[in-house]
Amino acid sequence: GGQHIVPKISLDPGDEILESATGTAGIWLLDVARKVHPGVSLTGIDISQRLFPTQHPQNVTFAVHTVTNLPESWSNRFKLVNQRLLCGALTSEQWGAALGELYRVSKPGGWVQLLETGPETAMSGGPMKRYADVYAAVYVNKGLVSDLNETLDQRLKSAGFVNIQKRTTALP
Q1: Fewer beta carbons below 10 Å: N end or C end of the chain?
Q2: Tens digits of per-residue pLDDT, 154-165?
Q3: What span, in angstroms and rounded, lies between the C-alpha atoms of 88 and 130?
Q4: Closest residue by Cα to residue 99 from 15, 47, 150, 160
């Protein structure tokens, strides 16, 4: 629906946003920077700087970090944390570490927004069932989490999150 920020939150000067795994030249972060007050600070992290944009607004910074081990100085710092499409990058153990870190760096009362993809494992019949089975086999073979859609709620609870909301959107 064109929303960059799904939770209904107010971002005011002095608030901070973190985008974990910013990749793709920081497109999400730069789009959000154009829509929020210039006094909101935005930080994008990734494991490599090669995709960081060279030009960006003054309230946007980029840094090389891994979501499984964020700086201690970031504890309770961010009002909003966004992370997209790490379903194909993190093992089950890494998901535990990453969610623990996202919880730690979020301000009390802040939000973590995760946007992930994958087939519903409950799909039945036809080509979609075969697709879901192949998807799961590839993920399991690579040590990744093939059922993240079904297990993410419990993983979030285990990391300490409360008020967990899930919205599933079908893509053609």
Answers
A1: C
A2: 999 999 999 999
A3: 19
A4: 160
Pairing of strands 78-84, 16-20: parallel
Beta 41-46 vs 60-64: how paired, if at all?
A: parallel
CA atoms within 13 A on the CB side of 29: 34
What's at 129, amino acid-wise? K
- Token pair for 84: 């997209």
Please state, in angstroms and as integers, the Cα–Cα distance from residue 168 to each residue in 22, 39, 73, 97, 125, following that order.
22, 32, 34, 24, 20
In percent, the amount of the chain with pLDDT more than 70 equals 94
d(C-alpha 151, C-alpha 92), whole Å? 10
pTM (predicted TM-score):
0.89
Nearest residue to 10 (alpha-carbon basis) of 60, 79, 108: 79
21 residue type, one letter: A
More confident residue, 167 or 80: 80
